[in-house]
Design a protein that fits this description.
The protein has helices spanning 2-22, 38-48, 71-79, 95-103, 146-164, 169-190, 208-214, 234-246, 260-270, 288-303; strands spanning 31-35, 52-56, 82-85, 107-110, 199-204, 217-223, 251-254, 273-276. It is of the alpha/beta class and 304 residues long. It has a four-stranded parallel beta sheet with strand order 2-1-3-4, sandwiched between helices.
Length: 304
Amino acid sequence: MSGKYFLLTALLTLAIVGTLSCQPPASNPRKSIVVTYSILGSIVKELVGDEATVTVSIPNGLDPHEWEPSAKDIEAINKADMVIQNGLNLESGMEKTLWTAKNKGVKFFTAAEHITVRRVGPGEGIPSGDPDQVVGAADPHLWMDPAAIKSVVSALSPRLKQDLDIDVTSQALNLESRLDDLDKGLTETVAVIPPEDRKLVTGHESMGYFARRYGFKVVGVIIPSLSTQAEVSAADLAALKKSIQDNHVKAIFTELGTSPAVANAIAAETGVRTVELTTHTLPGDGSYFTFMRNIASVITDALK
């Protein structure tokens, strides 16, 4: 009996060991990346894929200039392995939260540090009393230029490898190529607009990067600031109406944060129609590429 018992015990031990050895090793939990803004988040998700969990703080369609984080948002930022922000005061409502997380040791990547920043220049016809609109103020709307986004991707890829041990080199090369194709496609789309008609009037100063890239001129804005939070004076509106008439503007492009009543009043007085432009909201498919193509198409249809 003792021999049979010993043999049975040995066989059971081997079976248990064999079963354990066949089980896959416990996988490391995926890294957590928090992106402050939805449009930048779309690019990060395309780059990272399944290599990390990517969450976006500011919900798609909400104004990044005024949004403030909840307790849950703050917790996610503090627990993140990396936070990716736009920078240049876009996330002004999150400034304290982001500063605190950075001081706690959370790794940060700031997109604006890796592009050629557009700055407000003299003679743009916009008042200088607002700190977000003085000559030399940095424009945060960098996503309006695919070439700038390409620079962000090129810089983010090695940082992900360095800080999170996530290798997305091949994904970055593919994404950069697609951004090049997007850039060429947008150039072709707007090519039908005569040079004399490439004049933009927008809700606020959000189209500077697009204008610089594709040969447009911003001749007026309803809200005289890089932020939607600035106040509009009667003098601002009078100057805008004059600019619209002097430049023979064909359309007023309204956007997130633009007062429909103010835009419609200006349109009625100048005889220029309003056209909605989604400069801060991703389309239904969540794609940056669709987002930019839609913007180019809307502008082209209005000005050609």
